[in-house]
């Protein structure tokens, strides 16, 4: 694990300390948890932006987001994004079905 320094506003420090107290964990652990959650949400957001713009398939969006296809379908609902079924999706589904035999 590496160490980095970052300047944060006093309010952020206060909020982090408060959250760490509520979770009964130290500030470092709380920061790692918050950063991890933020990065996960960022990956999902960017992947679904690309999907909604038609640049990638839902399978690719799920892969980029680090979630399952089923979770990606749920994300579509949560983010109010229309489901598109592209040729690439059909190809992946066919490959999966053939492997299941």
Q: How many DSSP E strands? A: 0
Determine the mean pLDDT: 93
Low-pLDDT segments: none
Could you tell me how far the N terminus lies from the C terminus, measured between alpha carbons in angstroms? Answer: 44 Å
Q: How many discrete domains?
A: 1
Largest sheet: none
Shape, per Cα inertia axes: elongated
Gyration radius from CA atoms, angstroms = 19 Å
Number of helices in the DSSP assignment: 5
Structural category is mainly alpha
| Percent in strands | under 5%
Helix content: over 70%
Secondary-structure element order, N to C: HHHHH
Core attributes:
single chain, about 100 residues, mainly alpha, 5 helices, about 0% strand, elongated
Care to give the gist of this entry?
With 101 residues, the protein is an all-alpha fold. It is 70% helix and 0% strand. It has helices at 10-23, 27-52, 58-65, 69-78, 87-99.
Q: Mind explaining what this structure looks like?
A:
This protein is mainly α and 101 residues long. It has one domain. It is 70% helix and 0% strand. It has helices spanning 10-23, 27-52, 58-65, 69-78, 87-99. Helix 2 (27-52) runs antiparallel to helix 3. The radius of gyration is 19 Å and the shape is elongated. It starts with 9 loop residues before the first helix and ends with a helix. The model has no long low-confidence stretch (mean pLDDT 93).
């Amino acid at each position: 694990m590496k160490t980095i320094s970052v300047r944060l506003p006093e309010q952020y420090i206060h909020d982090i300390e408060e959250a760490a107290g509520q979770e009964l964990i130290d500030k470092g652990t709380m920061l790692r948890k918050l950063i991890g959650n933020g990065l996960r949400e960022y990956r999902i957001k960017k992947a679904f932006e690309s999907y909604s713009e038609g640049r990638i398939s839902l399978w690719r969006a799920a892969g980029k987001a680090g979630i399952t296809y089923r979770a990606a379908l749920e994300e579509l609902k949560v983010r109010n994004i229309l489901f598109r079924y592209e040729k690439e999706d059909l190809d992946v589904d066919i490959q999966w079905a053939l492997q299941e035999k």
